[in-house]
Amino acid sequence: MERAKRIGILTSGGDAPGMNSAIRAIVRAASAEEISCLGIRRGYSGLINGDVFELTRNDVDGISRRGGTILYTARSEEFRTDAGVEKAANVCKYLGIDGVIALGGDGTFRGALALARHGVRVVGIPATIDNDMGCTEYTIGFDTACNTAMEAIDKLRDTGQSHERVSVVEVMGRNAGHLALYTGIAAGASAVLLPEKEINLERDVVDVIRRGCIRGRRHHIVVIAEGVGHATRYAKDIQEQTGLETRVTVLGYIQRGGAPSARDRTSAAMMGLRAIDALKSGEGSRVIVSQNGQFFDMDIEEALKMEKGLDEEMFIACNRIDTSYYNNGTAGK
Questions:
Q1: Domain regions of the chain by residue span
Q2: Does the reported pTM lie above 0.90?
Q3: What tens digit of pLDDT does each residue of 259-284 get?
Q4: According to the 3-state scheme, what is the secondary structure of the chain?
């Protein structure tokens, strides 16, 4: 295939800190290769409707430090249909777009694959705070979301210690507990509840809190991934079984906002550069991944077949921090 001469850039699904850093790198690298860029507003919905504008080097000055995405993001029911995909592909042909770079998660990649099957060259860049994509060890936005959650828990700890409370903190993660696990370790949580693990409230939380109280601890943090269930229900059970005042904090969309961390900015920049390299070489239907500290591209269909499990070593490490829990032989079960 010939190298791309005009590309479109879109962000789809949930926004993630670092998306703007990737957009900046893409536009700057493309400009150096004399490839023109069109920004596509509101994801695949904007592509269907031809909601595009020219993106130049000047347009992306200073956007790396901003959270969210300058291209906006939305989900499109029309694009889920064959007719919608065909319409989007026709818009690409009409506008002379011979390559689309799509930033987002699994849903975004499936949309990119559908577009590729209609003859449009695509490259996906993984950007989701859940870090749940099997093809890559890291997704843009994860580090910033972890830092945001950790900083919020640090603040909750201050007031929780003053009132001798149990703080139940719900973080994002509908089907994956990566964010909850990393946040729990970073924030020094007493317990972490994950959708990948069977939960025994008595063993996993109540006993841990009781042992902490015996050792003199007067405040406890319990981190829950949203996919586990209702935090309020767990909080009620914890309070009834321990007798300790228990409060719930749902961090929600605060985790998606804020200036991206250094790791997210640099990872996004590297992935943006690799996306341009793929299009420059004539490649299509690719995704950019991070594995063993390296950034490279792979086939999008192969990428979508890959699944990511929980980091078992980190899960065991999380439990080992409470030595009594680990020595009971329950860690990792």
A1: 6-141+260-305, 143-256
A2: yes
A3: 999 999 999 999 999 999 999 887 77
A4: CCCCCEEEEEECCCCCCCHHHHHHHHHHHHHHCCCEEEEECCHHHHHHHCCEEEECCHHHCCHHHCCCCCCCCCCCCHHHCHHHHHHHHHHHHHHCCCCEEEEECHHHHHHHHHHHCCCCCEEEEEECCCCCCCCCCCCECHHHHHHHHHHHHHHHHHHHHHHCCEEEEEECCCCCCHHHHHHHHHHCCCEEECCCCCCCHHHHHHHHHHHHHHCCCCCEEEEEEHHHCCHHHHHHHHHHHHCCCEEEEECHHHHHCCCCCHHHHHHHHHHHHHHHHHHHCCCCCEEEEEECCEEEEEEHHHHHHCCCCCCHHHHHHHHHCCHHHHHCCCCCC
Torsion of CA 317, 172, 306, 70, to 10 degrees: -130
Q: What is the CATH number of domain 6-141+260-305?
A: 3.40.50.450
Longest dimension (CA), the chain: 71
Annotation marks residue 207 as catalytic: no
Candidate list 15, 130, 204, 207, residue with the active-site label: 130
Nearest to 19 by CA among 56, 50, 87, 65: 65
Per the listing, tokens 């860029």 go with 37
Nearest C-alpha neighbor of 70 from the set 130, 129, 27: 27
Contact assessment for residue 69 and residue 19, using Cβ atoms and an 8 Å cutoff = yes
CATH number of 143-256: 3.40.50.460
For 1-17, the pLDDT digits (tens) are 677 889 999 999 999 99
CB 180 within 8 A of CB 223: yes
Count the Cβ atoms, other than its own, within 10 Å of residue 285.
Answer: 21
208-238: per-residue pLDDT in tens?
999 888 888 888 999 999 999 889 999 999 9
Q: Which two structure tokens, joined as six digits, stand for 172? A: 């994002």
